[in-house]
């Protein structure tokens, strides 16, 4: 009897197909890996696509220098366990060579990741970056193709993208041009958590409910850290929180939660009507057009 594929089976099969298309069509791809939940799903997809051999590409993280240490430590442990190669492209290095100039020492660095990413692409000659972006995250991401074309300046033009009929993908580029491939583009936050549950994927601890010192600032929960210090007249609280998404400390906020297991997170995700970026990304709340503009400038 023919086995019926589940919803997750279909999504996984599509992602494996896309990953193999990248490996087959591109001469020098790289897998973007931050240690976050979406990139961990990509790692499992890569394992299923290419094991028992090694990945046909290295991994790369664009490190702002302001990431949560729990995530960085988990990133490094995961890479060691897999025995794969990790390239860390640092914003600190871009600042030292003058390509990034902060307006002030406490300015959020997230928007400057585009510069370091494009420098790393040029330095290593990558013709495709495999990322974990999903269409349900944000309006600009919803406009992306699976194989999203970038011109010789690393820029994205949403009006100049290639058709992808019948799951046929075109990764052809000229020298200096680039493709961003998104194998889990059609996944939702719920799909990610259900896949994590099914595959029993290990995650950084901050994805699960824990006590943390925070302040309530501009309708968001802001953790107290060395890069997000307490401001005058703010009141510190210690509450149970978890992170729905992780990134630069200055732009990633937790949510109040007592979900300390994957099963509880799935139930909580099913009951929320606010997207993960809408609830937890402080930089995206500044302007609805901010992400699209950043992507046009070369962002992930």
Description of the molecule:
With 300 residues, the chain is of the alpha/beta class. The chain has 2 domains: 8-191 and 289-296, Rossmann fold; 201-280, no CATH class. Helix content is 34%, strand content 15%. It has 10 helices and 10 strands. It has helices spanning 7-25, 37-50, 69-82, 91-96, 113-124, 139-142, 189-199, 262-271, 276-280, 290-296, and strands at residues 29-32, 59-63, 86-90, 128-130, 147-150, 178-181, 210-217, 220-223, 237-242, 255-256. Strands 3-2-1-4-6-5 form a 6-stranded mixed sheet, sandwiched between helices. Strands 8-7-9-10 form a 4-stranded antiparallel sheet, with no helix packed on it. Strand 2, helix 3 (69-82) and strand 3 (86-90) form a beta-alpha-beta unit. Helix 1 crosses helix 2 (37-50), helix 2 (37-50) crosses helix 7 (189-199) and helix 7 (189-199) runs antiparallel to helix 8. It is globular and about 55 Å long. It starts with 6 loop residues before the first helix and ends with a helix. Residues 284-288 have low confidence and may be disordered.
CATH-defined architecture of the largest domain: 3-Layer(aba) Sandwich
Task: Determine the N-to-C terminus distance.
Answer: 43 Å
Mean pLDDT: 88
**CATH class division of the largest domain:** Alpha Beta
Order of helices and strands: HEHEHEHHEHEEHEEEEHHH
Low-confidence stretches: 284-288
The fraction of residues in strands falls at 15-25%
Number of helices: 10
What oligomeric state do these chains adopt? single chain
* CATH topological fold name of the largest domain: Rossmann fold
- Rg calculated over all Cα atoms: 19 Å
Overall number of strands = 10
The tally of structural domains comes to 2
């Amino acid at each position: 009897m023919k086995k019926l594929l589940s919803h997750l089976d279909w999504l996984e099969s599509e992602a494996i197909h896309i990953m193999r298309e990248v490996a087959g069509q591109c001469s020098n791809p790289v897998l973007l890996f931050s240690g976050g939940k979406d990139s961990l799903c990509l790692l499992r997809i890569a394992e299923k696509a290419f094991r028992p051999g090694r990945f046909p590409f290295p991994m790369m993280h664009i490190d702002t220098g302001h990431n949560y240490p729990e995530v960085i430590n988990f990133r490094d442990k995961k890479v060691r366990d897999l025995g794969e190669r990790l390239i860390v492209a640092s914003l600190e290095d871009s600042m030292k060579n003058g390509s990034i100039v902060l307006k002030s020492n406490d300015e959020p660095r997230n928007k400057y990741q585009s510069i370091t990413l494009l420098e790393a692409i040029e330095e290593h000659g990558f013709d495709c970056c495999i990322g974990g972006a999903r269409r349900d995250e944000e309006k600009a991401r919803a406009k992306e193709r699976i194989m999203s074309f970038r011109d010789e300046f690393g820029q994205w033009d949403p009006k100049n993208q290639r058709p992808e009929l019948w799951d046929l993908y075109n990764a052809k580029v000229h020298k200096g041009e680039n493709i961003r491939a998104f194998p889990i583009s059609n996944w939702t936050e719920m799909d990610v958590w259900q896949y994590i549950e099914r595959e029993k994927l290990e995650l950084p601890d901050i994805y699960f409910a824990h006590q943390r010192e925070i302040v309530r600032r501009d309708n968001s929960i802001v953790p107290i850290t060395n890069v997000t210090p307490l401001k005058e007249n703010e009141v510190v609280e210690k509450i149970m929180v978890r992170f729905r998404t992780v990134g630069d400390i200055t732009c990633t906020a937790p949510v109040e939660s007592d979900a300390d297991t994957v099963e509880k997170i799935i139930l909580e995700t099913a009951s929320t009507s606010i997207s993960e970026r809408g609830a937890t990304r402080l930089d995206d709340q500044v302007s609805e057009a901010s992400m699209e503009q950043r992507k046009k400038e070369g962002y992930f």
